[in-house]
Amino acid sequence: MAGNNMRYNACFISLEMYAKDIYRRLAVRHANSPLFGKYNQVITMKKLINGEFTKDEEDLFYGKVVPDLNRNPKYGNIMVVDSLEIGVQKIDQVAAYVDDKMAGEERKQNGLHLLIIDYIQLLAQWWGDTLQVDRITATGKMARWLKELAMSFKGRGLTVFALSQLSRAAFMSAKESIKNSHENNPYQYVYNVTSFAESSEIERASDACITIYSDDKLKEQGQALVQLIKNRDGETIDVGIRVRALPNFGYIGDMERGKNVETHNEAVGELLADVANI
User: Fold this and answer.
1) Are 262 and 224 in contact, with CB atoms under 8 Å apart?
2) Structural domain harbouring 210
3) Staple 199 to which of 81, 139, 173, 273, CB 3.0 to 4.6 Å?
4) Sheet of strand 114-118, all strands in order from the earlier edge strand to the far edge
5) What is the pLDDT of residue 259?
6) Quick one: pLDDT at residue 59?
7) 139-156 burial, b for 16+ CB within 10 Å, e for fewer?
């Protein structure tokens, strides 16, 4: 949500969830941001889905959180498109439509800044079925296609944020390494650029790669580990930093402005913690 807070207009394309469910998750995540911390209310998806809000929680969520997310002029606009509304090969058309709609007929407003894809392997699977190629080949083609879209969209380019699965082998290797580590801080080098599922082309096509790791111990502490394992324009953060993670990842973001954040570079660490708020 950091992009939203900086008045960036975003389009979220999901092939896994309905748009209404994503909007609800965005609202719950917004309710858990520091902005509403003074109300001391715990807003969760479980409470929302099961109708378990207390009167105070309901008043906060529907009376303050949702209106603030929808109408606060400090934020950008978010449009969510689900798999029922889009064909796999029409992503560029959807992005162009959203850009025109956000900018207005006379383009007096800002257009689309950020395109979020959830998630690249699922998108590639659908595309692979159409092209009759295997998933690894399809994932590589999709990564390169998204790179071309990012560079050439309407002649000006577009930031594309593609969510990706990590390989199960990489996750199990990370857990085993942490379990058997004799270091004071075993959570150091969790993932690397070979950790992405299906295709190394994801890493090659990306300008930046961010990973998020958590296990039972970190979840108990309300934390997750974030790494910047590739950064084409600057330094990386191979030694992960700890960020706040609420249950079921309803919020992942900065801990009290840098407190308890473990990083070899404080300035880069703060930047990465802010990026994790997206």
Assistant:
1) no
2) 168-275
3) 139
4) 78-82, 10-14, 114-118, 159-162
5) 40
6) 95
7) bbbbbebbbebbeebeee
The pair of structure tokens assigned to 63 is 């009376």
* Domain match, 147 and 191 both: no
Rounded Cα–Cα distance for residues 23 and 27 (Å): 6
Look at phi and psi of residue 51 and say left if phi exceeds 0, alpha if psi is from -120 to 50, else beta: left
Give the up-direction half-sphere exposure of residue 49: CA atoms within 13 A in the CB hemisphere.
8
Q: Which residues of the chain have pLDDT under 70?
A: 1-6, 73, 83-89, 105-109, 127-131, 197-199, 246-278
User: How confident is the model at residue 52, as a pLDDT?
Assistant: 93
Query: Do 20 and 94 lie in a common domain?
Result: yes
Structure tokens at 268: 């880069």
Taking the alpha carbons of 89, 94, 97, 99 in that order, is the dihedral positive or negative?
negative
Is 27 in the same domain as 143? Answer: yes
Half-sphere exposure of 133 (CA within 13 A, CB side): 12
User: What pLDDT is stored for residue 39 in this prediction?
Assistant: 92
In this prediction, residue 128 carries a pLDDT of 62
- DSSP H helices, the chain, are 2-5, 19-31, 45-50, 55-60, 66-71, 91-103, 120-131, 135-152, 168-180, 201-205, 216-220, 266-275
CB of 243 closer than 8 Å to CB of 224: yes
In DSSP terms, which residues pair with 5 in a beta bridge?
none
Calpha distance 148→142 (Å, rounded): 10
Q: In whole angstroms, what is the distance from residue 232 CA to residue 160 CA?
A: 15
If asked whether residues 133 and 182 sit together in one domain, one would say no
Same-domain status, 173 and 234: yes
Output the six-digit token pair for 78.
Answer: 């978010």
- Kindly give, in sequence order, each residue whose CB lies less than 8 Å from that of residue 179, ignoring residues fewer than 6 positions away: 186
